[in-house]
Design brief:
Length: 329
Amino acid sequence: MNIVVTGGAGFIGCNFLRWMVGRYPEDRFINIDALTYAGNLKSLEDLEGKRNYSFYQVDICHRESLISLFQKEKPQAIVHFAAESHVDRSIASPLGFVETNVLGTMQLLDLTRSFGVERFVQISTDEVYGSLGPQGLFSEGSPLQPNSPYAASKASADLLVQAAAETYGMNTLITRCSNNYGPYQFPEKLIPKMIRRALDDLPLPVYGDGLNIRDWLYVEDHCRAIDLVLRKGRPGQVYNIGGSNEYTNLQIVQMILSILGKPMDLIQFVPDRPGHDRRYAMDADKISRELGWLPATGFEEGLRQTVDWYRQNEFWWRELVAKEMPDYL
């Protein structure tokens, strides 16, 4: 099977390619990425030279480039990670999120239909559901109530994917994951940001009261789930993927400081983010029941592995911080 992976030089995409390329030598994996700030080919150096892996620098908003790629590679499946993904950046500059996440997805769907691609998997987020109260879980049937420009752009893309299935009979699937963490995550996100700042004994900024809750999912567990959805998921379905690891942001920061042996007084509370959702938590019963998926990595184990990775790979993230981090991050 020829599988196009969009955004494969980003955090989850590179981990997915690393998971797949060695396990499926009979499949071909075509990685396309625009290499914007969060795309980094250094994250994929171990795949260079693999016979079933290739890379093209392509922007999913550029139709002619996509047409040329589809004509050459004849994809049979698309796994669509490519997206602008940071909430703070979406608040500061929302237009780019609409262009990539909505219009770029529409370009891919249109060409998927034109070229007769057999399966399209949209990688989405729990943020499309909005904010939960202190109880309950998001299910696949929860209404879409996005509260940030990023979340709204992903919800819009999800609706286009669902419309493609209903209108054109396309074989599409949507996965919605909780917060991912692990190796190769861009250092603007909460866990790598707190690790890198703690390593340098810098203040750790925590929004508001720090009691916003997220459900954390180790990235390799997420990649296993996507693999199952790609190969065994029912057409037209949505699958929630969650780690069942609910922690407040403050707890996460405290755990990182404890692992690193750093003082708690590095924590600095700052004004809250606009539209900051209070709680996310996912019901992943459907993917467990239908496809047999369960998370395999406990949170404390995964967090220690992640901290160790960032300690051992400072060369990877220090260059990114120096080049790509705006003042508000």
